[in-house]
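Re: that backbone. Tokens:
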């Protein structure tokens, strides 16, 4: 049986097909990604496929994630690849589920959760609906992204609001990119050949849409930059990250902004797009650093906020043994890594500039100099594999649901 996994980002759709070998063993047979989905930028959208030695890439209009999913189904049909099950990533489950089969009840829960993550959730639900419409007879499941962060202690996840409000509504820091962190933290220990127990790791998941940082001690998350939603933290493609919350009240009082106006402003019109004025993609911004003052400001703010979070987590961990960069920007952008690691010798981080600039994106690269106290790694993440394995666990626990 082949399992198709969709991993929906804010401006991308990663997809993979895994062939099930036995109870908990799979082999990746197809991989691909739709880039710049719905992005305002200087370059067109594109989609790429890699299948057993065959590569296909084309530029095409991809206005939304549902359309990206349709392109995937068309290619699978063209290449004669059969699918027996579809798995999806869901960003903020708010405690409703970890991994579950999608039925009418779950669809209702997903619909209810749309406002919590106004960029990702509508896109993810669009892919789910398109998948159910295209393959109505296939079982499909959804996996929550935040389980890795359940180990964050109360003093880090509790918001300083009145206790009765916190208890009534369940407001707390949940954190995101947990599937990615679950994978790269385990890989870090295996690659360095050291037990996670006793290790202090700061990992940076830097995507073309959303980005976050996590502090990990003994293999467990102790703090992360995102919160109840994916809005706080770093400067992101279209999200503002940390700002004074009174600004939202000021917008409502002085400019008659409604809640949906604020959602649109803070989630879709801010960040790199809002600062630069021309693109939400840091790759576009870097190309114009020399001649565009707003591009320079956007880049400097992006690096500064990231560097500030890394430094604060080094202090929270009382040291650092490894700094890990992952996802698209973390893997492919040597300039971001170089600027972030500059003047960080105070905490044991010293970059090998030549190794950093020559690092490849499809394998783990060691970026630190020989005299660096902390290891610096760029590492591909594998969220899709984690989603697939979560699906296999679900199948194994509910064998009567799906004949495998």
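Recovered sequence:
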């Amino acid at each position: 049986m082949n399992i198709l996994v969709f991993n929906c980002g804010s401006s991308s759709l990663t997809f993979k097909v895994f062939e099930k070998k036995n109870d908990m063993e799979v082999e990746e047979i197809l991989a691909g990604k739709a880039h710049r989905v719905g992005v305002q930028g200087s370059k067109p959208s594109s989609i790429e496929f890699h299948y057993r030695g065959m590569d296909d890439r084309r530029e095409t209009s991809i206005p939304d994630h549902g359309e990206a999913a349709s392109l995937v189904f068309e290619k699978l049909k063209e290449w004669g690849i059969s699918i027996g099950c579809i798995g999806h990533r869901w960003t903020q489950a708010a405690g409703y589920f970890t991994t579950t089969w999608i039925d009418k009840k779950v669809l209702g829960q997903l619909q209810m959760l749309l406002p919590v993550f106004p960029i990702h959730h509508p896109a993810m639900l669009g892919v789910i609906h398109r998948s159910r419409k295209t393959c109505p007879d296939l079982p499909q499941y959804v996996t929550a992204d935040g389980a890795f962060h359940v180990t964050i202690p109360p003093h880090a996840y509790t918001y300083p609001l009145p206790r009765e409000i916190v208890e009534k509504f369940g407001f707390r820091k949940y954190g995101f990119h947990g599937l990615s962190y679950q994978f790269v933290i385990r890989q870090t220990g295996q690659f360095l050949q050291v037990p996670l127990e006793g290790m202090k790791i700061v990992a940076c998941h830097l995507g073309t849409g959303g980005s976050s940082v996590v502090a990990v001690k003994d293999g467990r998350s102790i703090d992360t930059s995102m919160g109840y939603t994916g809005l706080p933290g770093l400067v992101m493609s279209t999200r503002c990250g940390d700002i004074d919350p009174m600004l939202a009240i000021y917008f409502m009082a002085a400019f008659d902004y409604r809640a949906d106006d604020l959602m649109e402003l803070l989630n879709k019109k801010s960040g790199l797009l809002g600062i630069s004025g021309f693109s939400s993609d840091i790759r576009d911004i870097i190309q114009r650093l020399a001649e565009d003052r707003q591009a320079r400001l956007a880049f400097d703010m992006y690096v500064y906020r990231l560097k500030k979070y890394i430094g604060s987590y080094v202090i929270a961990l009382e040291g650092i043994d490894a700094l890990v960069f992952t996802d698209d920007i973390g893997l492919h952008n040597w300039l971001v890594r170089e600027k972030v690691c500059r003047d960080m010798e105070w905490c044991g981080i010293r970059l090998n500039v030549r190794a950093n600039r020559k690092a490849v994106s499809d394998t783990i690269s060691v970026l630190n100099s020989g005299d660096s106290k902390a290891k610096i790694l760029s590492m591909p993440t594998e969220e899709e594999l984690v989603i697939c394995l979560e699906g296999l666990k679900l199948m194994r626990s509910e064998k009567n649901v799906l004949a495998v």
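The CA atoms of residues 285 and 299 lie 7 Å apart. The chain is about 40% helix and 20% strand.
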